[in-house]
Amino acid sequence: MKKDGAVGHSTNLVGLPTEFLASCDFNDQPMPLSIAAVRQMNGQLFEMLGQADDLDDAGHAFICYMNAMFGLDPEQREELGRAPSGRRRYRSSFLRLIKGWGYDSNGPEGAVFKGWVESRFGIFPTYHKGPIRRIASGDWTSYVEEKMSSRFHNNAIYAQLDLVYEFCQWALKRLVAPNETHVTLYRGVNSFDEHQIQERCDKQTVIMRLNNLASFSADRDVAGCFGDTILTARVPFEKLVFFNTLLSMHALNGEAEYLVIGGDYRVTASSL
Question: Using CA atoms, how far apart are residues 35 and 41, in angstroms rounded to an integer?
């Protein structure tokens, strides 16, 4: 979990070695990824998506399916509803998780998101409230406590995120950019505490180990609002979990934001 150390678990749920999945070689020549059994167990969803005329129609079908599968009615989605007894009830929702990530990627919602990436793709987080340099450290323990919070695991939240990822992949390849394989994205930083430099290629280009889930923007000017140094990365579609136009109803619209699975990336760093 330090420089040149293990990037993740030896196993994952996408059928490729984690070391390869988290490498620049994968980013240069990506292979299709699918979380084990998710599409097979949700065939009706993808039948519905196949009838969509555009991304708005597909997004509406996806939300309807998620509402039916996980009970994500409007009260549970955005506000705390009340049980018949009058007590507050809370049902975890991927939309609330995205909203929490948008406020603070190092909050409890961020830990759950990073835990899902670790579980499904095998890649360790490198940062949560502080640099995670080894398992059993205080920072690792804090991350594990937050990612396992019962508040977020009462409604199959990992299964919800599995479907978000598979819908994102389907939408990219069917509706958004069927002839593309990568997107150029930007991230503004003020320090390199969260991302570890593995190798310097030249004055501006480095191989950097990104946190296992990181926010990027499609707009360089927006990225500049978050730091004086702009990281530019060519990201394969297979490493995208969510992007700002995937759904019309979410909290990340304003920043052209993309959620990117981490690992080692070849990035260029430039000043504003």
Answer: 11
CA dist 173 and 266 (Å) reads 24
The residue type at 149: S
Confidence bin at 79 (pLDDT 50/70/90) = very low
Beta strands in the chain (DSSP E): 81-82, 88-89, 182-189, 196-200, 205-217, 229-236, 240-243, 257-271
Distances (CA, A) of 181 to 170, 176, 237, 244, 268: 13, 11, 6, 18, 19
Average pLDDT over residues 172-189: 96
Whether pLDDT at 44 is above 70: yes
CB burial readout 65-80, b (16+ within 10 A) else e: bbeebbebeeebbeee
Helical packing angle, 108-121 and 94-103, nearest 10° = 120
Per-residue pLDDT band at 254 (split at 50, 70, 90): low
